[in-house]
Amino acid sequence: METGQVMSEAAPKGGGKREGGLGAPTRHPIDWKSEAFYDEVPLFKELERVYDICHGCRRCVSLCQSFPVLFDLIDESRTMEVDGVDKKDYWKVVDQCYLCDLCYQVKCPYVPPHEWNVDFPHLMLRAKAVQFKNGEVGAARKLLTNTRTIGGLASIPVVTEMVNAANRSPTLRKVVKNLLGVHPDAHVPTYHSRSAHDRVNVVTGALPSGRAAGPTRGKVALFVTCYGEYNMPQVVDDLVRVLRHNAIEVKLIEQEQCCGMPKLELGDLESVARYKQFNLPVLHEAVKDGWDLMAPIPSCVLMFRQEIPLMFPDDAEVLAVKARIFDPFEYLMHRHKAGLLDTGFRKPLGKLAYHAPCHQRVQNIGPKTRDLLSLIPGTQIEFIERCSGHDGTYGLCDETYAYAMKIAKPIVTRVNQADVDHVTSDCPMAADHIAHGMGNTKPASHPISLVRMAYGI
């Protein structure tokens, strides 16, 4: 079925149509290889249809900036309906969507199998793909989403200090704004000259063959990710230590490319496909050799669990990888259920503000990170389920930074009021964004680093 294809011709105002349904939400494959996918005539027809449904519902108004922009366009139009909005202004809504997926997963009552068949994020993805194919994405955005290229260059020892110094300099940040469109006040991650592969290879070693428990096999091949490799190698080290502490054999995927999420959000689906062509044979080989897969960033897990399978629904390697990739805390809680998690924590963590990231929530695995952190004695958790507004590049770019901070403000206010000892999120960019909004008065940590701290290892 083509993305956005309507299963019923009923108009949103047709009357008598039920809201919600009993069927579990499902998603259609992304028909990105067809010419029709990039045809603006059916795209604009579908945008108008879905915008009209959203206008009649409005329950997503608090999620992100896309919906306030849409509703303001409608309310300020001559008809106060979608038909009064200039078609060229439809792109203003698209530009504010960063594919967090929360509208689909937690708010919209009209997702498939409902007859209105609303998949707002994937409609926005289609529109972004049209923008990209039409050459409407600038060189700066393309470069900014080349995370592995930027990370590789920034990790060259002589370059690392220069890049980190530039990020700390208000004067040089203005230069970066002109070159890459990065807002001078946005939090920019630190780069490290010793990558995760350089650092972690020093401490890993063979363990006895893994012990299976539930869906886990006790052997993990770790997809390090671009961010893990260059921006948070210590967190990768912490994850390896925690897994090994729990008698889980670990190895790193030695050759990998970006998972493709930054390019997906840009609408550059051809680059996503190229990364897939590189990564999937390597990951599939690990699965065939008896390894489970894991990544320390929720967005990367989501790419292999959802987006790539929807782009390549008939690819056997893709489906095999989808079935064997895990979120770290999901994996550990499976082990805990089988009695194989070491719960001999030595150090309390005090009070934590734990933010559940969007791309973890939409995997429908439940709050496994919170559940594991709750096992640590002397630890209180302020549990936050709300988008941080960062999304990798959205919280960096000059034109969207203010919106990203606006979206984060309710979280920042809540964390400040809670008076916590740590700010933590499985998404390190979200944690840093929240801490940045607090003026960096509290440290931002990855929860796996806190678990290692609690173990005292």
UniProtKB/TrEMBL annotation:
Keywords: 4Fe-4S, Iron, Iron-sulfur, Metal-binding, Repeat. The keyword Iron applies. GO terms for molecular function: 4 iron, 4 sulfur cluster binding; metal ion binding; oxidoreductase activity. Residues 45-76 form the 4Fe-4S ferredoxin-type domain. This is Fe-S oxidoreductase. The keyword Repeat applies. Residues 1-27 are annotated as: Disordered. InterPro entries: 4Fe4S_Fe-S-bd, Cys_rich_dom.
